[in-house]
């Protein structure tokens, strides 16, 4: 999961249906039943989510509710609050909720175990809710017309091939591996021609993820070779959203070291703090390293300030 600098006196967002009205900046205590790795992951998600809300001037988006629900589950918090967060995520952006639900088996399994299948059944995406990006919506029939460029047509074909035998999770078929190899050759050729990531300005928002998808589904050598390209595309908003970069880093880190940094890979342990410092430097993620360390420093300071009676926080419920 992308994971997500706690400033306790900024936000005023009402969580009208939640039972306990926890404050923005709330970090649950670690209960004895919670494993250390799960608690560290939950704290990381919460800190990054609170920072994202601050960066958006206090606005909560659907992804924030999703992250809150997952972190609260890891910390064994109120089932009513977790259900509320998921319902808010779904109501706020049904299409993106559907995409997250269908591509995050680890999160869904956690909710199924913690909330129960009957509760989760009422939250699952509606059949009428399409994913934001699907093979049905991005096809050569749509993009290989006079309305679009040749490059957009090529990427639509690449995306269709990338998804052709990826109907769910599990083993990738031999047929899909062959399609992936062909896509990788084509992306190398296009990158050699254009000398840059094929991003939002060149091919539009809906196709901006295609080059990343091919790299994400490639081999370790290709993933490492394009990591700086993906980093730059993410910084320049040619590949919107930090989740794609985190997924790529976690995939590389999992293959090379058997651990992950951001928690996006189901069943893979999170790196220790010392490992994180080393790996952020190894993958030239210096800015992210500083932010990670600053996050932990501010989080500790915020919790200390919160515990002092004479320094009462001006937080409000969300």
Describe the structure.
- The chain is mainly alpha-helical.
- The protein has 2 domains: about 1-130 and about 290-318, no CATH class; about 140-255.
- It is about 60% helix and about 0% strand.
- The protein is built from 15 helices and no strands.
- Helix 3 packs across helix 4 (about 95-100).
- It is globular, with a radius of gyration of 20 Å.
- It starts with about 35 loop residues before the first helix and ends in a 12-residue tail after the last helix.
- Mean pLDDT is about 80; it is low at about 1-20, about 130-135 and about 305-318.
Lay out the secondary structure.
Layout: H1 36-55, H2 62-74, H3 79-92, H4 94-102, H5 105-115, H6 117-121, H7 140-143, H8 150-163, H9 174-194, H10 200-203, H11 210-216, H12 220-235, H13 243-257, H14 273-282, H15 286-306
Helix pairs in contact: 1-2, 2-3, 3-4, 8-9, 8-11, 12-13
